[in-house]
Design goal:
Layout: H1 42-60, E1 65-66, E2 69-70, E3 72-75, E4 80-83, E5 86-88, H2 93-114, H3 117-122, H4 124-140, H5 143-151, H6 156-181, H7 187-196, H8 201-221, H9 223-229, H10 232-235, E6 246-249, H11 251-254, H12 266-271, H13 282-285, H14 306-318, E7 325-328, H15 330-335, H16 339-344, H17 349-370, E8 375-381, E9 388-389, E10 395-405, E11 411-418, E12 424-426, E13 430-433, E14 438-447, H18 449-455, E15 458-468, E16 482-491
Antiparallel strand pairs: 1-2, 3-4, 4-5, 6-7, 8-10, 9-10, 10-14, 11-13, 11-15, 12-14, 15-16
């Protein structure tokens, strides 16, 4: 290794104390607060309609009663889920899997057709951010007033407005947490406990945790959740193609941008070579994530269409055609397709495949619920006594049967066994199970000595039949009254 001497053309390395040698690189960029402007229009109306619908369902559903109980209750302690007339046990977990698969395919389908519809209109983060921002505007004013209030020194008025906003946010967050817990603890009992603050430890934890999460995400983090925490923002582009309807700025029509007097007609603007965009910046001011849609598709765009509403309003005031910012496809913008031509290209192979798969899964899901038996049976071998020799050389096996009554009335069941010659059930053959309960029943099966000798040592296939005796309604399932569960009978050596 050679060391090059310092010559006339070579400068010595700067010292650590030199200002030119010390360069501080910040790995954290402070986020500038976004003051989203209020907007009204067609898409804003749809957005608020979905806010009202989703919150009416969320806050109202736990208070509905069904057959003398809460209509929707996920009783984890008793290991039973009530959904109106449907009673589900842990063994029905497959229905949750089917629901999640349906939700995933619905997300794929809607994203392939029209982008982030879920994010813009129905995502809880979007919904609660809209509500929290509405409260903020009602107390502190719209964009300009909020910016002025934040820039002003602290005063009695500023303290009062900020305190009122925080109190409203905290109250909404706690009510949201209370409602969430009401899906797992009967909400009427929870409300009575609230009068004395007599919640249990887990109820306290989840009310405060869910309430704080709502308060923090919708009140402060807002667009940060969508941009940095939500994985959907990162992989959404994999679901898009050039025929996906997305919110787009028509640069061919809008550029070159620039201000101009309102009195200048659209024909004169076109004659001067100017675009329709007057560069007012309102599309940026109304964006909840603070992006400029005129720079093209960006992963931060949640598809709320606020920029479409405000731009259409500006076009109306300028007496220009609407649609400078609109739902359009990349192919539509590039090839100058009209709305009808773009919509025809929506029904492309990937959309048809998603739709077909979703319809098949939906049909299977509904059929499974319709054909669902009103009770379930699980058979477990008694590990303490697999097989033993009893009187007259008969072979006895002991089993435990779990009978789960999925109806809301007491039921009686007859237990029988078949599959081996001479197989006999000892003890009670008829059992009663209370409504929505699961009962363990011990069953003894005996096999004659000569039959056991003929079969030989080992495990031999047999089956239990459990038949419902009462004519109670079968609920959402079919009136099937018989379930068969396979098992084995062990003959010892």
């Amino acid at each position: 290794m050679s060391v090059q001497p310092i010559g006339p053309g070579i400068q010595p390395p700067p010292k650590a104390s030199d200002d030119a040698a010390v360069q501080v690189v910040s790995l954290y960029q402070a986020q500038q607060k976004i003051y989203a402007r209020a907007v009204s229009g067609w898409f804003a109306g749809w957005r608020w309609a979905l806010v009202a619908l989703t919150q009416l369902v969320f806050y109202g559903l736990p208070w509905l009663q069904w057959n003398g109980r809460q209509a929707v209750l996920f009783d984890i302690e008793a290991r039973r889920f009530y959904i109106f007339g449907l009673v589900l046990h842990p063994q029905d977990f497959i229905y949750l899997t089917g629901l999640l698969i349906l939700s995933a395919y619905a997300l794929f389908l809607f994203t392939a057709v029209a982008g982030r519809l879920w994010c813009g209109y129905a995502c809880p983060q979007t919904v609660y951010t809209e509500i929290f921002m509405w409260i903020e505007r009602r107390i502190e004013g719209d964009r300009a007033a909020r910016m002025k209030l934040d820039a002003a020194p602290w005063s009695l008025e500023k303290f009062a407005r900020k305190s009122a906003k925080q109190a409203a946010w905290i109250a909404l967050g706690l009510w949201t947490g209370f409602t969430f817990v009401g899906y797992f603890t009967p909400i009427q009992d929870l409300a009575r406990s609230a009068l004395t603050l007599g919640f249990g430890p887990w109820e306290w934890f989840w009310i405060l945790f869910y309430g704080f999460a709502t308060y923090g995400n919708a009140g402060y983090m807002r667009e940060q959740v969508c941009k940095y925490m939500c994985p959907y923002a990162r992989f959404q582009s994999a679901m898009f193609d050039h025929d996906t309807m997305i919110i787009s700025y028509d640069a061919t029509r809008g550029d070159p941008r620039g201000s101009r007097p309102r009195s200048l007609g659209h024909a004169a603007v076109v004659a001067q070579g100017k675009g329709d965009c007057i560069d007012c910046g309102l599309c940026v001011q109304v964006c909840p994530t603070g992006i400029d849609i005129r720079q093209g598709l960006q992963y931060e765009c949640i598809g709320c269409a606020a920029c479409v509403d405000v731009c259409d309003g500006v076009m109306d005031k300028m007496d220009y055609p609407r649609g400078l910012i609109r739902y359009a496809t990349q192919n539509g913008i590039a090839q100058g397709l009209d709305q009808r031509q773009m919509l025809r290209r929506v029904f492309r192979p990937r959309v048809l495949v998603y739709t077909a798969i979703m319809l098949l899964i939906s049909a299977a899901f509904v059929a499974s619920l319709v054909m669902r038996s009103p009770f379930r049976v699980d058979v477990v071998r008694d590990r303490g006594t697999l097989a033993r020799i009893v009187d007259e050389g008969r072979v006895e096996n002991v089993y435990r049967l779990q009978i789960m009554n999925a109806t809301e009335s007491p039921q009686r069941y007859r237990i029988t066994a078949s599959g081996l010659p001479g197989l006999e059930l000892k003890g009670r053959g008829v059992v009663e199970v209370a409504s929505t309960e699961a009962r363990w029943v011990t069953v003894n099966l005996e096999l004659p000595a000569d039959t056991a000798q003929t079969l030989g040592a080992g495990a031999h296939a047999m089956a239990f039949q459990v038949e419902r005796l009462d004519d109670a309604p079968a609920g959402p399932g079919s009136p099937s009254s018989r379930v068969e569960e396979k098992s084995t009978f062990v003959v010892p050596r």
